[in-house]
Design a protein that fits this description.
With about 325 residues, this protein is of the alpha/beta class. It has a single domain, classed as Rossmann fold. The protein contains 14 helices and twelve strands. α3 packs across α4.
Length: about 325
């Protein structure tokens, strides 16, 4: 690998000052009380998404007054977009709604992604419809696969990787917003806010589809990335979802949901339960629960809609490792 390009000293100082920024409450690596997760039902792409996202961010503890002048990076999922499968990728309406919320709060907003399966990011922007949407709102886009990078110590150490290369836009951000599509995953069961952050890892260093990470263990490297990043919140596109052979070849499943959380483990655990899966059996969530945030139901404070009435089990591939993730009827109502 070539040596990474140098990044500014301002970047390093910014990362060191994240805790003092006060954008959120408790830190990522230490948590005490229950973590709030907000879920809204009956959502549509042509509905008042900005109001829903704003209410969700406030409900989970984001301090809007402290966002003025801050750098916010929205990270959608554009893994391998095609116009024939719009339920694979984060809908442009979700991205624009989130951008509107943060802009109204005075933040400087950039959208960034490093697609895992597509080397030509311009193609991903065109096929997903995101490029046209961003141009219409004059939102800048950062190609995280090809940006200059900086090296950071692996704060998680769940895998054997001593450190991670991260793109400049990620390191410069005061807040990274993971905006995944709610989907099944053929290897790890679920992909939501935590797994979506694979897309901040640059392809120029880790290959396509981020092979270095795969070889070091997907659950372990998901937990490592989430441990090492700057401050993160999650906004899940759970309106038109994917079940079955996700994250690319699955079928559309309409749920009409938007979920928001400042603790990504708590958020993804709630999403998994709604999908009819047991979070404690999902490898990266089990690892994350040790240090990054709670996944046990009693440690999560539900805001907005309660999750139980929303449960609609997703189909998963007929493989023993995936079928064991499914909740039984008793587990869903216990």
């Amino acid at each position: 690998m070539n040596e990474p390009n140098q990044i500014t000293r301002r970047t390093a100082i910014g990362i060191g000052g994240l805790a003092a920024a006060g954008l959120l409450g408790a830190g990522r690596l230490l948590y005490g009380g229950p973590s709030p997760v907000f879920v809204a039902k009956n959502q549509r792409y042509d509905g008042p998404l900005a109001a829903t996202i704003r209410d969700g961010l406030v409900a989970v503890g984001l301090d809007a007054q402290r966002l003025a002048g801050k750098r916010v990076l929205l990270k959608p999922n554009l893994v391998e977009p095609t116009r024939a499968i719009p339920h694979m990728t984060t809908h442009p309406a979700m991205i624009l709604a989130a951008a509107d919320v943060f802009r109204r709060w005075g933040a400087e907003v950039t959208v960034g992604e490093g697609p895992g399966h597509v080397r030509d990011t311009e193609t991903a922007l065109i096929e997903s419809g995101v490029g046209e949407a961003l141009a219409g709102e004059r939102l800048p886009f950062a190609d995280l696969n090809y940006q200059r990078v900086g090296y950071r110590r692996n704060r998680g150490r769940f895998s054997k990787l001593p450190g991670l290369y991260l793109p400049e836009s990620v390191l410069d951000a005061d807040l990274v917003v993971s905006m995944p599509k709610m989907k099944t995953h053929h290897w790890v069961g679920v992909t939501a806010a935590m797994k979506n952050l694979y897309g901040v890892i640059p392809g120029i260093k880790y290959g396509w589809p981020k092979n270095v990470l795969h070889h070091n263990g997907i659950p372990e490297t998901v937990a490592d990335i989430n441990s090492t990043l700057p401050r993160v919140v999650g906004i899940v596109d759970g309106i038109d979802c994917m079940e079955g052979d996700g994250p690319i070849l699955g079928s559309r499943k309409h749920m009409g949901l938007v979920a928001v959380g400042a603790s990504l483990p708590a958020l993804d655990a709630t999403v998994a339960r709604i999908m009819g899966l047991v979070p404690e059996r999902i490898g990266y969530l089990a690892l994350a629960s040790r240090r990054l945030g709670p996944i046990a139901e009693e440690r999560i404070e539900q805001r907005g809609e309660p999750w139980r009435p929303l449960v609609d089990p997703f189909d998963v591939l007929d493989q023993p490792a995936l079928q064991r993730l499914r909740a039984t009827g008793g587990e869903l109502v216990s």
